[in-house]
Design brief:
This protein is of the alpha/beta class. It is built from 8 helices and 9 strands.
């Protein structure tokens, strides 16, 4: 099982899916299974771009929301369509990848504001859980890098979450600003060059998460240092929340594909289960 999953995770880092269809939000009730469908929804005074893959069958299916990382070229959720297809195929999850403000074709201002990004995710989930083939009680968030930062910031504000995966993220941005060796990350965090930038820290909020969490990180990550994952693990432990923290000892910001696949699928099978009807 792991080989095709690993291949699809590898593809997600290289390119988006070539067979994407376009549809209106109102047409998604009758979306064809297996292929990615691109749509837009109204949110936060603008519109957000998203790509959804419906599994085979009638459902209702758990919904996994994939939140992409930073791209210097501005690419958005299209890069995660192969990962969405993998979740639809192997776990029978309805999988949606959302383009964050400032990326892809999303047209929403103030993309560095955690409340704005949380609103974008919440509005997308609210729209999709009206579909008959989505189980509104089984919502999973999966954030990658920058996406993990904003996923963590949204957890306590989103309803019906069953599980969360945080992949190479940061959770105390003030600490990150002091620790990272990547100057471009410091510039992203503090674009105006403030002497004391106001950066959020989600660690004090962990006690309100109330959701099983999987934390993935590389011990040699030069961009988002591993102490971010270690601090989050300590906060989750103190809050007595079910969680797993997997530190890959020889990995940097990019994690080993086999390790990711095994950790993610084992975690989701335990806390959410499959959406497939055998």
């Amino acid at each position: 099982m792991w080989k095709p999953i690993t291949v699809l995770f590898a593809l997600a880092g290289l390119t988006g899916c070539g067979g994407v269809h376009n549809a209106e939000l109102s047409q998604l009730e009758n979306a064809a299974p297996a292929a990615a469908t691109r749509f837009f929804y109204e949110t936060q005074g603008g519109k957000a771009e998203a790509f959804i893959v419906r599994p085979e069958g009638k459902g209702p299916f758990p919904l996994i929301v994939l939140v992409h990382g930073h791209s210097r070229s501005g690419r958005g959720a299209e890069v995660l369509t192969p990962v969405a297809e993998l979740f639809a195929k192997h776990l029978c999850y309805a999988a949606v990848a959302v383009s964050l403000p400032g990326y892809g074709a999303t047209e929403v201002a103030n993309g560095a504001d955690r409340e704005v990004v949380t609103g974008v995710l919440n509005d997308g989930i609210a729209a999709l859980t009206r579909l008959s083939w989505i189980d509104r009680q089984k919502i999973v968030l999966y954030g990658f890098s920058r996406g993990a930062v904003f996923t963590a910031a949204a957890i306590s504000r989103l309803p019906h979450l069953r599980a969360v995966v945080l992949h190479s993220g940061a959770y105390d941005l003030g600490e990150l600003y002091r620790d990272t060796s990547a100057e471009w990350i410091r510039q992203v965090l503090n674009p105006t060059g403030m002497a004391q930038p106001k950066l959020f820290n989600v660690l004090p909020e962990v006690g309100r998460w109330g959701v099983p969490t999987l934390v993935l990180h590389g011990a040699k990550d030069p961009l988002l240092p591993v102490n971010q994952a270690e601090m989050l693990d300590q906060s989750l432990t103190a809050a007595r929340l079910p969680h797993r923290t997997v530190i890959f000892p020889d990995a940097g910001h990019r994690l080993p594909l086999d390790g990711i696949a095994k950790a993610v699928f084992s975690f989701l099978q335990e806390y959410v289960g499959t959406g497939c009807r055998r």
